Amino acid sequence: MQYKILASDYDNTLVPFGEGKPRQKVVKAIKKLQAAGGRFVLSTGRAYPCVNLKGQLGGIRFDYAITCNGACVVDREGRIVAEHPLTAEEMYALVDFCEDYNYPLQFNFRDACYAYCEYEYLHRGYRQMNSIGLDCMDGEDQDRHLIDMPHAAFAAVPPEHVADFAAKYGHLGLHWMQVGAQNADGLCYYDIVRGGMDKGVGLADLCEKMGLTLADAVAAGDSANDVAMLKAAGLGCCMANGTPDAKAAADRIIGDVREDGLADLIEELWFDGPRAEPSGRDLGSPWDKIESAGGQ
């Protein structure tokens, strides 16, 4: 078996956008891969508490998870394998900026996501966008970081004001990644991690801890925050429904998420099935319809 692990993005790679869990063909393929000795790695912008919700993975148990866009890697029990948490200075800069403008801000800790600014706005947004329990805790007392530091932040900011943050705090080098489209309030959602952090770093950290090389890894994704992972892996595969930058970063294009492209890839690489090719049918782009911060 040439490849040892499969690292997969969640939204629009493992699960079609708007659906609550992976389809059965994909679930069966991943379980078959694991039974044959392969390791399944979930790779996402979300924090660990947000990827371990009951029913969200349709019966799949990941072996490892690259969370917070590479800033925290955990095993299936939630034990940290590698981490790159935010510093106190980085946290304080984000809080200072968001409090000045009343922008929603949450920090992703290992036990839960805590809203430090505008909890009600974030809580209401989570309730509107899903039915699987994804939410944040009220952290407006701003003391959760006295226990340990968060791995990432999530903020809702007008895109033109991201440059204002950079003008004041650019020396910190924080990495802002836009998630989804601008909403009706004129805000864009951003995942924020330390400079240099991305899913490719998380995959490299995991391979090192497992005693593997990046050449042993297959990565599958569909969007901008998957680009570094697709480039880092021994084989980077972009879904046919992927964005142009993700397609350009990949070694090859596979089937659309709504055609169970990930399942076909597993059959090809691990079980000598037919080559996993896109069908060529125009299924439209779900990215045109994204209105929330769900795409991670």
Q: Can you describe what's shown?
A:
This protein has 296 residues and is of the alpha/beta class. It has two domains: 5-83 and 197-289, Rossmann fold (3-Layer(aba) Sandwich); 88-193, Hypothetical Protein, Haloacid Dehalogenase-like Hydrolase, Chain: A, domain 2 (2-Layer Sandwich), CATH 3.30.1240.10. The chain contains eight helices and 14 strands. It has helices at residues 24-35, 88-101, 119-129, 159-169, 199-210, 227-232, 244-249, 261-271; strands at residues 5-8, 39-43, 64-67, 72-75, 80-83, 105-108, 113-117, 137-138, 152-157, 175-179, 188-193, 217-221, 235-239, 252-254. The chain has an eight-stranded mixed beta sheet with strand order 5-4-3-2-1-12-13-14. The protein has a six-stranded mixed beta sheet with strand order 8-7-6-9-11-10, with helices on both faces. Helix 1 (24-35) runs parallel beside helix 8 (261-271). The longest helix has 14 residues, at 88-101. The protein is globular and about 55 Å long. Mean pLDDT is 91; it is low at 284-295.
